[in-house]
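User: Show me a protein chain along with its predicted structure.
Assistant: Here is one chain, sequence first, then structure tokens.
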Amino acid sequence: MPTEVIMPQMGESIFEGTITKWLKKTGDPVQKDEPLFEISTDKVDAEIPSPVAGVLSEIKVLEGATVEVNTVVAVITESGEAQGPDTNATPAPRQAPPEAVSAPPQVAEVVMPQMGESIFEGTITRWLKKTGDPVQKDEPLFEISTDKVDAEIPSPVTGVLLEIKAAEGETVEINTVVAVIGAPGSAPSAPAPAPVAAKPPAPATAPTAVLVPATQANAGGKIRSSPLVRRIAKDNNLDLSRIAGTGSEGRITKEDILRPLSQQGPGSAAISSPAAPPPAATPLTGDLVPLSKMRAIIAQRMVESLVISPHVHSVFKVDMTRIVRIRERDKAAFEQRHGVKLTYMPFIAAAVIETLRKFPIVNASLENGSIRYHDHIHLGIAVALEWGLIVPVVKQAETQSFVELARAIADLAARARTKKLKPDEASGSTFTLTNSGIFGEEFGTPIINQPESAILAIGGLKKEAVVLTDAEGNDTIAIRSMQHICLGFDHRTIDGADAGKFMGELKKTLESWDKPIG
């Protein structure tokens, strides 16, 4: 039976893509998950794998053509089936197929959903149903973990879980079929074993970047890589001919190119000769626990951010006494009126939003050699979890009142800790707040949440003896509630003068708070 290959949706705001290169030609055999063609969108360049094994019988969209998502771009048939027309010929206009009434499907395939515009895979952490169990539409079916969000995935239909195709602990690409649900009353065709959690990998030495002379790395001549890999290499002055690929037929993968960046930095050169092995060290004792999926992704994203952005940090001390007094005076009445506790976070968030509107460069981001000034302020709020960290987003925060901000922040934090966030609620931020001061530290130097240009860390709130100078120049000593705030910013986009002006205006807004809180 022929299988239609469609243009995938590469993000929540992506509606079309351009085919930049076909990696196979008509008549070629293809394996499932083997790279089939390359696409480019306004968010990402990517290789698209074949959904099935078979023969590429027809290419419907030529290189360079831009089509909408879900458009059929190719047809793959089983080996031995007739092939479609040659793509080198001028394509004839397709006639609309005759309408036909089809019977309702007896089974529904459950796929790994795309949880964000830059997410291409997810890990199944737990199945909430087992084979043979009845399920209702929208009832939680399984839990997944990605680098953006942990979430429960609901069943798309009502029926019976006939088959589980991906076990707990398995990582699969988006749109991969992970389960099959049959009509109510159906039974599995054969007893299926319960999914077995993937065993943790045996302890091993961390992989080292393989940088070798070009004659060894790519002796075959042509360098096989994706547009994304080539773009990373260009931006970081890397020679792809000196990187050994670990993908199919020596293809250089994203992991291959990020490894030398994280270990040696941009412009890494070839290693002309192997370094002398270090003397053997006495092995350390203790438990060696594999990283969780979320922790591994956090580690990767932090290294990537430090490689991409030249970080600079600016620290200011803010007198929060006025806000402390307002909160102490109104917190009981505020909670009674609005049903949410009055914390310091909405005060800081509101002040940040007001200041970002005056300094839009701090809310901007670097994009393909240009600066993107965002139309809205999508405020990320870092939330610490027992199993990691996540950044839910208050969308269009500049349109919300103080009360709406307080409710949104409390709601997102609560649902983040119970894995109830929706996919688009953990992506798309333009500026992030992180409140590391709740653990008592003076201040932290945060790492930028890519692709943003800045992040603000909030330090601990403490009482201190402060010298105050009145209008006549007289000094007095008073006990004030003081707090450090630290702006981490990308020096490619934001100059130190702009960062200083932003922080000075934010300090002024907080210290002279005069806005109603509702």
